Amino acid sequence: MAPGASRAEHRVLILDDHVLFAEALELALSLEQYDVRRLELPEEGGSMATLRSMALRANPRTVILDLDLGRFGDGVNLVAPLARAHVNVVVVTASQDIGRWGECMRLGARKVLTKSGALQQALSTVRRLHQGLPVVTREELESLLDAWSQQSRADEDIRRRLDRLTPRERQVLGALIEGRTVRAISQDSVVSEATVRTQVKSILNKLEVSSQLAAVGMANQIRWRQGA
Question: Cα(59)–Cα(47) distance, rounded to whole angstroms?
């Protein structure tokens, strides 16, 4: 933003499917005279590509972006294309996964804020961006990028373990992720429970974990799904 530019020339787009938070932020920014818009998410149809196009067409200077976009998926997929368009991306999230925060920064986000207390922090961040001031310290940025790097290595190790699974074991793990029991899996597959238990045991050995819960947690950590 050019020095001396008015707040009315600073367009802020809010992309958040939590209506109460989005409306509160819209009101607060409007009271400070910013040109604020709230992107209405389509109730039916559409995709992440749709949201990306809608956001870019709005021509914002700053986007307040929630990572949890409901049926549209992970908002992290919007960070890079918005940043490449020279938009200030300010992420708000309920996630406490610092590695995920670091991923957002690596992709070009200017700041990541936790949803708890995000309203005042978002206002402060927009003010500083409008004034051309930094919104993260070098130490904060390095810490987040380091967390992302460590998380990436851990996730890659999980992917290598999951790659060891046979197609049948992947099916069983997918069923466990859906909350199905060994008995239900055996009935669906028309095999004995003993066979399914043997398959589950093989899954645990290959993933190097001691319980079905740990196996499911490991798969969910990298958002793994059967056939992905």
Answer: 19
